[in-house]
Amino acid sequence: AGIDQVYLAAAKVGGIVANNTYPADFIYENMMIESNIIHAAHLHNVNKLLFLGSSCIYPKLARQPMAESELLQGTLEPTNEPYAIAKIAGIKLCESYNRQYGRDYRSVMPTNLYGPHDNFHPDNSHVIPALLRRFHEAAQSHAPEVVVWGSGTPMREFLHVDDMAAASIHVMELSREVWQENTAPMLSHINVGTGVDCTISELAQTIAKVVGYQGRVVFDAAKPDGTPRKLLDVTRLHQLGWYHEISLEAGLAGTYQWFLENQQRFRG
């Protein structure tokens, strides 16, 4: 039997520094990945495909929480515009193959993901693995304080990678009728998140608790904060019958356990 479904999760990803330094790599590699795989799926008569995008497709000043309809309603965040444009192109590739060829190619846009097998490198990891590692090292060395960049007030949403996998399968397995009733041919992507956010300060305190760090948590307000709030509106996903299951604290505890058990093996 041939392949009848493709989950397209491959991408070139990175933080602000990488996106600023290698914008050509980010737009070119991501557009090639999507174009090659989506077109190849079509050529080989694979009728079902799920494309994983990113919440950075939304305008810099999008209304919060960000509904799917915010797409292309304003200017993107300049630092990751090439990456965001590539991810928007991926959505539009799926929609265009559906419209021209009758394919069933769907798109999901995850919020910030975390969990086992993450990148824990001190220089280029995302906020959860970065803080887990720093609080772990502070606890080991009995450091009196941990300094966290920024004021601690920005709000962010986090989804465990296992929940993301479950949501992806849920969306892929929906009947075509249900999927079409809840989307539009040219606005077909589905946000995937918890619909709940927390401040960076709350996140840091929760991580300190999970790691067992007893010292002070200090915020360096001289450092940049980024966007004040980035929360996905997951009404469409909830209407389709999927809700997240892993709480932030439980997910962080499991991720920390994995980190402890894989000291020589984690990325970074």
Question: Could you name the key traits of this structure?
Answer:
268 residues, isomerase, three-stranded mixed β-sheet, alpha/beta, 15% strand, Rossmann fold, Epimerase_deHydtase, single chain, GDP_fucose/colitose_synth, GDP-L-fucose synthase activity
Overview of the structural elements:
By secondary structure, this protein is α/β, with parallel strands linked by helices. It has one domain (5-261): NAD(P)-binding Rossmann-like Domain (Rossmann fold, 3-Layer(aba) Sandwich). Helix content is 42%, strand content 15%. The protein has nine helices and eleven strands. Helix 2 packs parallel to helix 3. The model has no long low-confidence stretch (mean pLDDT 96).
Largest sheet: 4 strands, parallel
User: Would you tell me which CATH topology applies?
Assistant: Rossmann fold
Question: By CATH's scheme, which homologous superfamily applies?
Answer: NAD(P)-binding Rossmann-like Domain
Radius of gyration equals 19 Å
Q: Show unreliable segments.
A: none
Q: How much is the average pLDDT?
A: 96
Pfam family, one: Epimerase
GO molecular function: GDP-L-fucose synthase activity; isomerase activity
Keywords: Isomerase, NADP, Oxidoreductase
Protein name: GDP-L-fucose synthase
